[in-house]
Amino acid sequence: PTPTPTPTPTPTPTGVNGTFTGIVSKKNPYGPVQVQIVVVKSKITAVNALQYPNTSDSKAINARAIPILINETIVAQSANIASVSGASFTSPAFKESLQSAITLAKI
User: What global pTM score does this model have?
Assistant: First the structure.
């Protein structure tokens, strides 16, 4: 696959704005996890889980865990969020990809 160009943060008088995609974390043995954040005025305003395991048991676990992780991210404005009970593989993978997106955004 062709690598996606890395966006450059756009600093403005009102802060950083843009969409930043984290690394594909392979910490989850059931499949990769990748997170994308939308930043407006240096605040995380949206989080998208671009990739996550969606087969067998993972489907039910992640249907519950991903929305919780997304909400925690928006509240915390960082990757310093609690792991979701029952999602012991998805939680650290989500946080790893999230932190890389935050680092890329320089916020």
Answer: 0.87
